[in-house]
Amino acid sequence: MDGRRSAAWRFGWLWTAYGVSTFGTRFAFDAFALVALLVLHAGPAEVSLLAAVGPAVGAVLSVPLGPWVEYRRKRPVMIATDLVRCAVLLSVPLAYALDALTVAQLLVVSVTVAAADITFQAAVGAYVKDVVPGEELLRANGRLESTTWTATMLGPPLGGAAIGWFGPVTTVVADAVSYLLSAGALGAAGGGDRRPERPEPRPRLRAGDLLDGWRYILRSRELRPLFLNTVLVSGLIMASSPLLVVLMVGPLGFAPWQYGLAFAVPCVGGLVGDAKEADELARRARTALDARLALTERREKERDQVVERLRDVEELLASLTAEQLAELAELERGRVDEAQRELVASGALSGANAPSAAGGRAVRYAVEQLGKPYEWGAEGPETYDCSGLTSKAWRAAGAEVPRTSQEQWARLERIDLTDLRPGDLVVYFHDATHVALYLGDGMVVQAPRPGARVKVSPVAANPVLGAVRPDPGGEPLEHYVPPELPEGATDGSDEGYGAGYAPAAAATSAR
Hints:
The chain has 511 residues and is mostly helical. It has helices at 7-27, 31-38, 44-70, 74-97, 103-131, 137-166, 170-189, 212-219, 223-249, 256-264, 267-319, 322-345, 357-368, 386-396, 405-411; strands at 413-415, 425-428, 434-440, 443-446, 455-458, 464-469. Helix 1 runs antiparallel to helix 7 (170-189) and helix 6 packs antiparallel against helix 11. The protein is elongated and about 95 Å long.
C-alpha cells in the first residue's frame, strides 16, 4: 500500500471499533438502572434521577468540549474517550467487590460516560469523512447504522441473560472491555484524519459563543421543527423508561433478559427498514451523482465562455493606446468616487459598528488573501472567485454560508446598509452576480473578476443590490482593532463580476 494504509483498511478498523463499542453499550443496556435496583435496592425516584441526570449533565459538559474537539485530529479524541469510559466503568465492579458501591458513584460514572459518548459520536462523523471517499460515504454510514440496529437488537437480551448467569455488574465489565478493544482497533487504523485548520489568531471562547448553535437551530425554519419534534418524541419516550425498568424487574417479576428482550424486538423493524431503504438510497445517490456530473459539465462550459469573453476584453485592452488606457482608468475612478460620495451622503455608511467575534475572524481571513488571483469557481487557498472568498472566510471563522452570491443573497438575513458591520456581505448588480466582504470605513474586500486579484475597494465600486449578515445572532465585540492592510491593497481595477463577464447560463453557478 506504498507505506500508507488504504481508506478501506482504515474504515475497516473504524467499523470494528464502532461495532465492538456499540455492542458493548447495548449489551449493558440500562446497566446502571439494573445495578441500582438489584444491588442497591433503589426506588423509582433514584432510578429516574440516575436515568435523567447522567445524560443531561453529560450533554452540558460536552458543550465546551466542542471547540476543543473541532481543531484536533479525531482519531486520538476517539481513543481518549474510549479509555476514559473504560476507566470509569471499571470503577463500578471494583466498588461492588469492596461493598462500597453507591448511587452517587453511579451518577458520576453516568455523567462521565454520557459526555464521552457525545464527544465520541461527534468525532466519528468527522473521521468517517476524512478516511472515506465522498462517493462511498453513503455506504459507510449505512454500515454503521445497520451495526447500531443489530447491536440494539441482540445486546439487551444477551446482557440480561449474562446478569442472570454471572451477576449484576457483568455487563458493566463487558462494556468497559469493549471500549478498551475499540481503542485498540482505532490505534490499528493508523491515522488518515487531517488536522483541522485553526484560525489565527486563535479565537477566545466566550460564554455567549456556546449559545450560537442553539440560536442557529431555533432561528432556522428547516431545523427548528425537526429539533422540537425530536425533543418532544424523545422526551416522552424517556419519561417512561426509568419507571418501566422498576415496574418490569420489580413488581412484574421480569428477569433481566426478558426486560432486555422487550426493548430489543422492536429494533428488528429498524434493521429490516434499513435493508429495504438501501436500494432507494443508492438510487437517489446515483441520481444525485448524475446531476452533479451534469452540473460540472455545465460549469466547465460556462468557464470556457468566461475565458473567451476575457480573451476578447484583453484583446480590446491591448489595442488601446496608453492615452486611451489612462483615460479609461480615470473614467472608472471618477465613476467609483461619485458613487461612493452619493452613498456616504445618504448616511448609509455613517455608523461605526463593531463586528461579531466570527465577523472579525472572517475579516482577518479575507485580508490575508489580498493579492491572490481571481479564478472563476475557485475557493482557495491559492485562487478565489468572489463568493469563494466570502464563503471560505466565514468557514474559517467557524460558520457555514451558502457557496454562491445568489444563494447568499437569497438565504442569509438581509440588513440595511446603515447597519453594516465588518464581516457582513455586500451583494452587487440586480441579479446578485457579485459579492464582497465589508471591511469597515466604507471599504470592502473582494475578488473582482477574471484577470484581477483580491483587493480592497470602495463599497460603491459596483452597483449595490443590498447587504446580508451571516451571523445575525452574533454579539458585537466590545473592543475591535481592524487588521492592518498591506501596501498596494487598493491597487487594480474595482470592477466586479457583472453582466459583462457572466456566462449566459450561469444563474446559479459559483461566482
